[in-house]
Amino acid sequence: MWPNEWPAIPRAIATATYGADAAARAGSADQFSAAIAELSALPFEQVAAVQFRVVRELMETLHPDGLDGDDVSEVLGRCARAAAPWWQGLDVEFLAVVITGALGVAEAEETPRGRDNRVVIESAVLVIADLAGAAKVATKDYIARAVSDIARAETIEMP
Predict the structure, then answer these.
(1) 102 and which of 40, 52, 108, 143 could share a cystine (Cβ 3.0–4.6 Å)?
(2) Which residues, including other chains, have CB under 8 Å from residue 77's CB and lie 6 or more apart?
(3) Contact predicate 15/42, CB 8 Å
(4) CA distance linking residue 155 with residue 138, whole number of Å
């Protein structure tokens, strides 16, 4: 499904993110929890980098003319309403952390309760599922671009 030249960890991040997105869209708490457990076992910084990049690109897809505070509030509310019926671990505060982090406004480390990696990962996938659903797009290409862009940036030699 993913390019063979990708190292094991990026491939695992892409696979688990894709699976978690599918579970979130289906409202399957058991499948979502399993995929989040897989993601939580991977290096947080790499998982967050991929997921935040996907969130940012999806936000840009939905709002090609730019975002304002109302747009961000709309995404936050829509995502919370969609996830609340099936995901008991929903934390709206962390949905906001993901959205603002993906937009470069804040860092995950700046949350009032500290850095809870699993909740950041869960929240990122919930935001991805919501945005992709609203944009009526599949996430596979977004995930692939995020992983490829990060890999490309990491392999560029510094002068």
Answers:
(1) 52
(2) none
(3) no
(4) 27
Closest CA to 127 of 147, 115, 142: 142
Sign of CA dihedral 49, 44, 3, 143: negative
Residue 42: DSSP 8-state = S
Using only C-alpha atoms, the chain has a radius of gyration, in whole angstroms, of 15
Read off the tokens for 91. 């934390």
Task: Indicate the DSSP class of residue 110.
Answer: G
Give the Cα-Cα-Cα angle 46, 98, 78 (nearest 5 degrees): 135
With 0.85 as the threshold, say if the pTM is over it.
yes
Q: What are the pLDDT tens digits along the chain (159 aa)?
A: 777 778 888 889 999 999 999 999 999 999 999 999 999 999 999 999 999 999 999 999 999 998 888 999 999 999 999 999 999 999 999 999 899 889 887 654 454 455 589 999 999 999 999 999 999 999 999 999 999 887 776 665 445
Domain boundaries, the chain: 8-155
